[in-house]
Amino acid sequence: MSANIIDGNSIAAQIQEEVAREVQRLKQKQIHPCLAVVAVRKDGVSECYVGNKDRVCEAAGIRFLKVEVNAGAPEQALLDEIDKLNQDPNVHGILLQLPIPHSMNQERIVERISPRKDVDGFHPENIGKLLMGLDCLAPCTASGIPELITRSGINMAGKHAVIVGRSNLVGKPLMNLLIRKGDKANCTVTCCHSGTDHLANHTRQADILIAAIGVPHFVTVGMVKEGATVIDVGINRLDDLEHSLGYRLVGDVDYEEVREVADNITPVPGGVGPISVAMMIRNTVKAARLQTFL
Ligand SMILES: NC(=O)c1ccc[n+]([C@@H]2O[C@H](COP(=O)([O-])OP(=O)(O)OC[C@H]3O[C@@H](n4cnc5c(N)ncnc54)[C@H](OP(=O)(O)O)[C@@H]3O)[C@@H](O)[C@H]2O)c1
Q1: Tens digit of pLDDT for each residue in 144-156?
Q2: Does the CB atom of residue 98 touch ligand 1 within 6 A?
Q3: How far apart are CA 110 and CA 121, in angstroms?
Q4: Cα–Cα distance between 251 and 211 in angstroms, integer?
Q5: How many Å apart are CA 145 and CA 153, to the nearest integer?
Q6: Is 70 helix (H, G, I), strand (E, B) or coil?
Q7: Looking at the chain, which residues constitute the CATH 3.40.50.10860 domain(s)?
Q8: Of ligand 1's atoms, which has the minimum distance to the CA of residue 195?
Q9: Where residue 1 falls among pLDDT bands split at 50, 70, 90?
Q10: Which of 14, 52, 186, 227 is the 20 to 30 Å CA partner of 284?
Q11: pLDDT at 99
Q12: Cβ distance 272 to 144 under 8 Å?
C-alpha cells in the first residue's frame, strides 16, 4: 500500500494561522512584530525568496522590512546595517538572506545579529542553548520537521530517527531537537554523513528517516525500512525541458519507489519547504515576545 503523504502546505497553513492569531494578540498590546531581511546580492533567486518571505509576513500581519546592500559594498556596510537593526526597538527579527558574496565573512555577519533577534537560529548563542536543551530561537527547517511529523499524528517518542546529513543548517540542529526530552522529540538519534560506513545498514533501522544531503534521489527503496516515516529535506533542480522553467525540483529521496514501502512520506515540493517559512514567522513572533517580556 502506498504511503500517507505528509502535506507540508496544509501544516504550514495551520502554523501561519496560529502565528496570525498571536500577532493580533500582540498588536492589542501595542506590539507590532517586524522582521527585517538583509539581502546582499541582487540575483533572481534571492529576490524570489525575499518576495516569498514578504508575502508570508504580510498574510500573518507581520511588518516586513527589506534592507539591501550592494554586492560591491564592503562587509562593514552590512555590519553597520545589522547594528542599526539590532538597536531598533521596532525590529524584532533579523534574517540574513543567503547566499552572500565570498568576499564577506558569513560567520562574522551571523554573529553580529543579536541572538534575541536571530530568527534563523544560527547565532552560536542559540546553537549552544539548543545543544543544552534550553529555550531558544532554533533553526527554522530543523524545527519544522517535528511539527510535520507530530501534526500528521505520528508519535516520535522512543522512535529511532536516522538523519543523513550533518550540516549546521539542518542535520546538526535537527539531531539536537530530536534527542530533547519532552513533546515532539524524545527519539533515539543516529546521524550519518559522507564518512559513514555501510550507510544503508543504518538507514534501514530508521523508524523516522530524514534525508538532508543535497543529492537527487539518493535514498533508494532498499535503504528504507517497511513502515518508516520518511522526511525529505532535499531541494534539487533536475533539467527538464518539458517543464516551463526548464527544470523540476526533486528531493533526496526516490519518492516514487520509497512511497511504496514507507508508511508516511513528504513530497518535494510541498513537504519540508513550506514549513521552513512558517517557522521563520513563528520565530519572529517568539522574538517579539522575548524582547517585550510577554
Ligand atoms: N526544504 C528546505 O527548506 C531546505 C532548507 C535547507 C536545505 N534544504 C536542502 O536540503 C539539502 C541539504 O542541505 P544542507 O544545507 O544540509 O546541505 P550541505 O551543507 O551540503 O550538507 C549535506 C550533508 O549531506 C552529507 N552527504 C553528502 N553526500 C553524502 C553521501 N554520499 N553519503 C552520506 N552523506 C552525504 C554531507 O556529509 P559531510 O558532512 O560528510 O560532507 C553533509 O553533512 C539540500 O538539497 C538543500 O537544498 C532544504
Answers
A1: 999 999 999 999 9
A2: no
A3: 10
A4: 9
A5: 13
A6: coil
A7: 29-117
A8: 40
A9: confident
A10: 186
A11: 87
A12: yes
Does residue 1 or residue 195 have the better pLDDT? 195
Query: Of ligand 1's atoms, which has the minimum distance to the CA of residue 144?
Result: 3
* String of DSSP letters for 166-196: --TTTHHHHHHHHTSSSTT---EEEEE-TT-
CATH superfamily of 140-273: NAD(P)-binding Rossmann-like Domain (3.40.50.720)
Catalytic residue numbers read 53, 97, 120
Q: Please indicate whether residue 251, judged by its CB atom, sits closer than 6 Å to ligand 1.
A: no
What residue type is 153 in one-letter code?
G
Indicate the CATH number of 29-117 among 2.60.120.10, 3.30.360.10, 3.30.930.10, 3.40.50.10860: 3.40.50.10860
Residue 164 Cα to ligand 1 midpoint, Å, equals 8
- d(CA 172, ligand 1 centre) in Å: 11
Tell me which of 193, 199, 236 to substitute to probe ligand 1's pocket, judged by most ligand atoms within 8 Å of the beta carbon: 193
Distance 214 CA to ligand 1 centre (A): 5
Q: Does the pLDDT of residue 44 top 70, yes or no?
A: no
Nearest-atom index, ligand 1, CA of 212: 12
Q: Indicate whether 48 pLDDT > 80.
A: no
